[in-house]
């Protein structure tokens, strides 16, 4: 399956992948509206990590594992792997117990404290290429066929 | 091939998926004494408290059983296994033959013979959907409930009742709640939060007598001599592996059904997984029951793989719990409270006022345990470091940072996990040209 990979040397630490992700998962799909006016602003599903004021940075996100630890740990069944291999989180079913946060070795599931729901990458089902990848100005994120690790 | 699975919960589901990944033809029969399809057992307190409705109890999409072509027998209890004739016996006398058998019967609540308990009506346990439903039905008449046991299940029952605005007292024998998963500071933080929300927590004491005339409860007397008035008692002392029905069989049982690292029991073609099993511990390799949901899934997956002829081995049970009480998140994993701290290296940070606590336990430079209270974000990175046995010598200092992440680890680890080729990519080679 296609996955998102991260090229550390190309990452400039601009966080545009996070902005792209938030925008894509907002109601308006408009960054200004999403950030200024939407009551429930989404939180980013990718995480840019930085060290030493940005000298080291990279964007991390869900690996859509073959045998997802998050799925095994999920007590409500909200996390399922679909026939394409995408690891999906059903927000309705999620009870916000954070078992997936405890289990994901990639640190790729976030806590949305406002909605008390877990938050994870869905590979942007409405797009051909995930928003984070398109948003990256230096092609530090690539979306292509590949294995989990 | 006839696969028979006793129990229809998370261990069974892990096994069903693993079997069907390798064998689309074989017959799979799943037998459960409960009347429900697989449900989120840990969600029964949410159901009791009214946070979720019955529909959300379902653990699986409706079509799961048909899609995996499961012959599902609900409301059927297995009362014996004959490993010579390879049959399981059901209540009512029917028998079902197996080629491969999985015992995934989970745990039964343990109810000690407390004085006065036998003739009282409103004594409950709290491990099934039906337990929660029964409590919910009578909840209008509950004025004050006593929960015996301050472990996970007891606290969950207390939380559910608290959500219904019932007054609740939890009585725990140890010096703190959740003593098996948490160390003292973390247990204290949780107890403090519970008290702030109206749940009374009494530690280092226990119920010696349930008081009242006839079937009615008027209160409980504690070992200390204190009397707590109440009308309902929930017994949540613990669960025991549900292996009683195997008494006549020759399957080896200690505390749980003893299994090897493919989940095979001592009897040929018989496997066990989940709360009923006693498998190797991740660190000590000693066998013990590990009654947590994620481990039950993993054991089910290993068992199902072995049953269908595949090869996967169990890495050992790693304790981990994510528990949230009144908006304070807590995650604990691995060895959190070593009996002999001199063999371990422990780092911690605490800010009890703000419900924040972080503790890291290392042994020989390997991360072996962690407790996080409050900020639990990305806790899974720790579980990954434990499981992969990553040498933390160079990274120890950063483990307590609130935003600890992969940038604090080596470049090699980051590249292995996230880069396109699993190693450093030379920028001169366009990434797109190197597909698998
Ligand atoms: C209130 C509560 C909260 C919990 N919260 C958490 C949590 O937050 N995180 C966590 O990790 N774990 C939690 N747990 C523990 C978790 O639910 C268990 O570890 C998990 O359910 C074990 O799964 P299992 O498949 O081994 O067995 P179980 O879920 O116990 O299921 C076994 C099934 O087998 C059936 N059965 C037993 N004997 C027979 C027989 N002879 N014939 C036919 N059927 C039989 C039982 O009726 C049952 O339906 C909680 C448990 C409870 C009760």
Task: Characterise the protein shown here.
- Chain A: InterPro entries: 4Fe4S_Fe-S-bd (IPR017896), 4Fe4S_Fe_S_CS (IPR017900), ET_IronSulfur_Cluster-Binding (IPR050954).
- The complex is a heterodimer of chains A (about 150) and B (about 425).
- Chain A has about 150 residues and is α+β, with helices and mostly antiparallel strands.
- Chain A has helices spanning about 15-25, 30-35, 70-75, 100-105, 130-135, and strands at about 1-5, 45-50, 55-60, 80, 85-90, 110, 115-120, 140-145.
- Chain A has two domains: about 1-60 and about 125-150, Alpha-Beta Plaits; about 65-120, Alpha-Beta Plaits.
- In chain A, about 55% of the residues are buried.
- Residues about 425-435 of chain B have low confidence and may be disordered.
- Chain B has helices spanning about 10-20, 45-50, 65, 130-140, 150-165, 185-195, 295-305, 380-385, 410-420, and strands at about 1-5, 25-30, 70-75, 80, 85-90, 95, 100-105, 105-110, 125, 145-150, 165-170, 200-205, 205-210, 220, 225-230, 230-235, 240, 255-260, 270, 275-280, 285-290, 320-325, 330-335, 345-350, 355-365, 365-375.
- Chain B has nine helices and 26 strands.
- In chain B, the strands form seven sheets. Chain B has a five-stranded parallel beta sheet with strand order 3-2-1-7-19.
- Chain B has three domains: about 1-110 and about 240-305, FAD/NAD(P)-binding domain; about 125-235, FAD/NAD(P)-binding domain (3-Layer(bba) Sandwich); about 325-415, Enolase-like, domain 1, CATH 3.30.390.30.
- In chain B, helix 1 runs parallel beside helix 7 (about 295-305).
- Chains A and B meet through strand 2, strand 3, helix 3, helix 4 and strand 8 of A and helix 7, strand 22, strand 23, helix 8 and helix 9 of B.
What's the number of structural domains of chain A?
Answer: 2
Number of domains of chain B: 3
Mean pLDDT, all residues of chain A: 96
CATH class wording of the largest domain in chain A = Alpha Beta
CATH class of the largest domain in chain B: Alpha Beta
Number of helices of chain A: 5
How many individual helices of chain B?
Answer: 9
Order of helices and strands of chain A: EHHEEHEEHEEHE
Please report the total strand number of chain A as a whole number: 8
- Approximately how much helix is present in the residues of chain A? 10-25%
- The largest sheet of chain A has its strands arranged as 1-8
Q: What would you report as the Rg of chain A, rounded to the nearest angstrom?
A: 15 Å
SS class of chain B: alpha/beta
CATH topology of the largest domain in chain B: FAD/NAD(P)-binding domain
Query: Tell me about the biggest sheet of chain A?
Result: 2 strands, antiparallel
CATH topology of the largest domain in chain A: Alpha-Beta Plaits
Structural class computed from helices and strand pairing of chain A: alpha+beta
Biggest interface and its residues per chain? A-B, 50 and 58 residues
Main sheet characteristics of chain B:
5 strands, parallel
């Amino acid at each position: 399956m296609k996955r998102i990979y991260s090229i550390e040397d190309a990452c400039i630490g601009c966080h545009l992948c996070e902005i792209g992700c938030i925008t894509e998962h907002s109601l308006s799909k408009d960054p200004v509206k999403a950030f200024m006016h939407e009551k429930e602003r989404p939180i980013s599903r990718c995480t840019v990590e930085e060290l030493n004021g940005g000298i080291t940075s990279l964007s991390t996100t869900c690996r859509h594992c073959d045998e997802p630890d998050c799925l095994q740990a999920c007590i409500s069944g909200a996390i399922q792997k679909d026939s394409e291999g995408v690891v999906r989180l059903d927000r309705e079913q999620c009870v916000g117990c954070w078992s997936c946060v405890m289990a994901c070795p990639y640190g790729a599931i976030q806590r949305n404290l406002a909605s008390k729901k877990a938050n994870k990458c869905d590979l942007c089902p409405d797009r051909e290429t995930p928003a984070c990848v398109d948003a990256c100005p230096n092609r530090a994120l690539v979306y292509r066929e590949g294995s989990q690790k | 091939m006839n696969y028979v699975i006793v129990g229809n919960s998370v261990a069974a589901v892990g096994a069903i998926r693993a079997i069907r990944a390798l064998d689309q033809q074989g017959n799979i029969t799943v037998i459960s004494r409960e009347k429900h399809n697989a449900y989120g057992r840990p969600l029964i307190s949410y159901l009791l408290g009214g946070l979720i409705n019955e529909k959300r109890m379902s653990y699986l999409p409706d079509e799961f059983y048909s899609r995996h072509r499961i012959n599902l027998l609900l409301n059927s209890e297995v009362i014996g296994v004959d490993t010579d004739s390879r049959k399981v016996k059901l209540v009512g006398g029917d028998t079902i033959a197996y080629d491969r058998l999985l015992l995934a019967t989970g745990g039964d609540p343990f109810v000690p013979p407390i004085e006065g308990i036998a003739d009282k009506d409103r004594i409950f346990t709290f491990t099934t959907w039906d337990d929660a439903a029964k409590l919910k039905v009578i909840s209008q008449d509950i004025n004050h409930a006593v929960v015996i046991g301050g472990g996970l299940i007891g606290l969950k029952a207390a939380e559910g009742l608290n959500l219904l605005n019932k007054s609740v007292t939890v009585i725990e024998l140890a010096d703190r709640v959740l003593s098996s998963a948490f160390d003292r500071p973390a247990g204290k933080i949780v107890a403090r939060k519970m008290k702030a929300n109206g749940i009374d927590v009494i530690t280092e004491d226990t119920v010696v007598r349930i008081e009242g005339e006839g079937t009615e409860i008027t209160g409980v007397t504690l070992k200390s001599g204190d009397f707590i008035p109440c009308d309902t008692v929930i017994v949540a002392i613990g669960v025991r592996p549900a292996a009683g029905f195997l008494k006549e069989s020759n399957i080896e049982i200690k505390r749980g059904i003893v299994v090897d690292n493919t989940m095979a029991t001592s009897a040929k073609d018989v496997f066990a997984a989940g709360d009923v099993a006693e498998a190797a511990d991740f660190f000590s390799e000693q066998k013990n029951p590990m009654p947590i949901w994620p481990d039950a899934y993993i054991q089910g997956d290993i068992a199902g793989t072995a049953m269908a002829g595949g090869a996967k081995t169990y890495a050992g049970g790693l304790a981990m719990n994510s528990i949230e009480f009144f908006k304070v998140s807590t995650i604990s994993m691995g060895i959190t409270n070593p009996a002999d701290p001199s063999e371990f290296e422990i780092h911690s940070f605490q800010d009890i006022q703000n419900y924040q606590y972080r503790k890291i336990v290392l042994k020989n430079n390997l991360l072996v345990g962690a407790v996080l209270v409050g900020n639990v974000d990305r806790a899974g990175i720790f579980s990954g470091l434990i499981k992969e046995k990553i040498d933390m010598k160079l990274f120890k200092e950063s483990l307590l940072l609130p935003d600890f992440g992969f940038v604090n680890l080596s470049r090699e680890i980051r590249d292995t996990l996230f880069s396109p080729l699993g190693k450093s990519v030379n920028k001169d080679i366009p990434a797109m040209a190197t597909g698998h």
